[in-house]
Design goal:
Elements lengths: L14 H4 L4 E8 L3 H12 L5 E4 L12 E3 H10 L2 H7 L1 E3 L1 E6 L2 E7 L11 E3 L2 H14 L3 E4 L2 E8 L2 E8 L2 E12 L6 H5 L5 E15 L8 E5 L8 E6 L4 E7 L6 H4 L2 H12 L6 E14 L4 E2 L2 E3 L5 E2 L7 H20 L7 H27 L4 H14 L3 H4 L40 E4 L2 E4 L8 E6 L8 H8 L8 E6 L6 E2 L3 H5 L7 E4 L5 E5 L4 H11 L11 H6 L1
Parallel strand pairs: 1-2, 1-11, 2-8, 5-13, 11-18, 22-23
Antiparallel strand pairs: 3-7, 4-7, 5-6, 9-10, 10-11, 12-15, 12-16, 13-14, 14-15, 16-19, 17-18, 20-21, 20-24, 22-25, 25-26
Helix pairs in contact: 2-5, 2-9, 3-4, 9-10
Length: 560
């Protein structure tokens, strides 16, 4: 029996939306899953009015997506729900892979100290959605439950929607439409938009069981365990003593039969032993898919999350990449809606996030091929790699039980200003920023908590020295520019102090080094010595207002 009580969100009759229909709204979101709710929250943080439609009146049934990566937690921090999610979830960094009963590989997602968030947390999707609904409501997002969008007609300057409710149907128009209605997207299907890729011939059973166990909060993955021969099994701990178990079943398994308790319970008992008490909470069957739409932007329709791309669940790339979609999209859309950037800026959403989706699909496909070999030769290679990994460190890099979600480095983005000087480390233009401990006004703090929702210029200053007064004045004036840029100095007595020296180390910084940071905490540009003209040029490029030639679409650059 589930320990979770599903909330019912209040339905409001749409009389206000029916009056004078079709009304026109600046921004509409379809879908109140994690990604759609993140889009609505981000819109409010950017100062946009947002109307969200969802055909249900509760959170998703079952645990569904459960693994949220460090970068997603940092995005949720920016959205104002990070603490709630991390406090409720089960944090973990270590994953262990077994061949039969012997450990052959172990990894640590955050091997070095000095990060606010763990590598991963496990949390049932319904808990996450409930937290996101509370936050969206708190910020004034207009959430409409039991409102089913049954038709979307693209317009040159927006879209017209037909919405069904318990009190009748109505039409409404949107200047911009964010489509977040999931993997079976009704909008995508109704418009006949393409989704290309592979469906892999294998099936997996998800079984969520409630039990008290002293297993550590780690990711455990077995190849050919004694309790499930010739197949694979994954074990994760979630909140409220709920444990997620994934059993590989094979393509010939009957999905309806395998979901029955009388089929699931013996599998779980074989794994846990007859003496351990447990209760089956939820079960589902899934098939690996690695597919995406050719384009995520169709005029003023913008597709995000599973509506735009789908990947196999091993690796936790689904919801995590969806959060990165909205993280990339909303600041750009806000600038366009406010007239501070041209519509062409949204082409970079399509280019950068299709590039990221391709990266996720490549990694997910490789994991799938390793977990479910498609030929005798592939299985021989897989098993040989697992055997060698027991004693040979080089072979452990070949073991792939699901390369876990990491954010895309948008190194080919047209919004980046290329380096003009040498830097070491990973914080290249296009990189998602590394966190680091800092001190602000004498208090311990974290770098990423000081950034986000606007452009920032982070400048490192020397001990006992600040910026040249004239330069400081010119850079501070950027705060009043049409696209504001906040100046943040780093150094003793500055806006931020590098508490442990990790900030300078991770950013290869010395006095004079400067980073221009996008509202989504990606690096836009960096310099060893900064001046106003350089910042203005980089800002123009990062907001698609530069007259310079754009870089090629990332997929073209990779193909070349």
């Amino acid at each position: 029996m589930s320990t979770y009580t599903y909330p019912k969100f209040a339905y409001r009759a749409p009389s206000d939306l029916m009056a004078g229909a079709p009304q026109r709204k600046p921004l509409v979101v379809i879908g109140a899953g994690p990604v759609g709710l993140a889009a609505a929250i981000d819109a409010r943080l950017q100062g946009l009015d947002v109307l969200l439609f969802d055909e249900e009146d509760s959170v998703s049934f079952g645990s569904r997506a459960v693994c949220y990566a460090k970068r997603s937690l940092e995005i949720l921090d920016r959205l104002g729900v990070g603490d709630v999610v991390v406090d409720k979830g089960v944090s973990w960094n270590v994953g262990r892979t077994f061949m039969q009963e012997e450990e052959v590989y172990r990894f640590d997602l955050v091997p070095d100290a000095g990060h606010k968030r763990p590598g991963m947390i496990n949390l049932q999707q319904y808990h996450l959605e409930e937290a996101l609904v509370r936050r969206a409501t708190e910020l004034g997002a207009d959430l409409r439950w039991k409102h089913r969008v049954v038709n979307v007609q693209p317009l040159d300057d927006g879209a017209r929607l037909t919405v069904e409710t318990p009190d009748g149907s109505f039409d409404i128009e949107a200047d911009w439409l964010v489509v977040a209605d999931g993997a079976r997207s009704n909008v995508r299907r109704q418009l006949g938009l393409d989704i290309e890729g592979h469906v892999f011939k294998d099936r997996f059973l998800i079984a969520d069981v409630i039990m008290k166990a002293d297993f550590p909060a780690e990711r455990w993955f077995w190849f050919d365990p004694p309790f499930h021969r010739n197949q694979s099994v994954l074990l994760h701990k979630q909140s409220d003593n709920v444990w997620r178990i994934d059993f590989q079943l094979g393509w010939d398994a009957d999905p309806e039969e395998e979901k029955k308790p009388e089929r699931i319970i013996p599998r779980v008992k074989a794994m846990l032993g007859d003496d351990r008490e447990f209760t089956l909470e939820w079960a589902s069957i899934y098939t690996f898919q690695c597919r995406r739409m050719k384009n995520f932007r169709h005029g003023r329709l913008l597709f995000v999350g599973d509506a735009a791309h789908q990947v196999s669940p091993f690796g936790a790339r689904g919801a995590n990449s969806g959060f990165q979609d909205t993280d990339d999209l909303l600041w750009k859309l806000a600038l366009v809606i406010k007239g501070q950037a041209p519509e062409a800026l949204l082409d970079s959403y399509d280019a950068d996030r299709t590039y990221a989706a391709d990266e996720n699909i490549r990694n997910s496909t490789r994991s799938t091929d390793f977990i479910t070999p498609k030929s005798a030769v592939s299985k021989l290679f897989r098993n040989a790699a697992l055997q060698l990994a027991r004693t040979q460190p080089f072979a452990r890099k070949l073991v792939n039980s699901g390369r876990l979600s990491v954010p895309a480095f948008l190194v080919q983005s047209a919004l980046n200003t290329p380096d003009g000087e040498a830097f070491a480390g990973n914080m290249v233009p296009g990189a998602p920023m590394d966190d680091a401990p800092v001190r602000v006004a004498g208090q311990d703090a974290w770098l990423l908590d000081q950034l986000g929702n606007r452009f920032a210029l982070m400048v490192f200053v020397a001990d006992g020295q600040g910026l040249d007064p004239a330069l400081r004045t010119s850079l501070q004036a950027l705060a009043q520019a049409p696209v504001p840029v906040r100046l943040l100095t780093v150094g003793p007595g500055a806006d931020m102090e590098d508490a442990q020296g990790l900030l300078a180390k991770r950013y290869d910084a010395r006095p004079g080094t400067a980073y221009l940071i996008r509202p989504d905490q990606h690096v836009a540009a960096r310099w060893r010595r900064v001046d106003l003209a350089a910042v203005q040029a980089a800002l123009a490029r990062a907001t698609a207002q530069s007259s310079s030639q754009p870089l090629p679409h990332p997929t073209e650059a990779v193909a070349a």
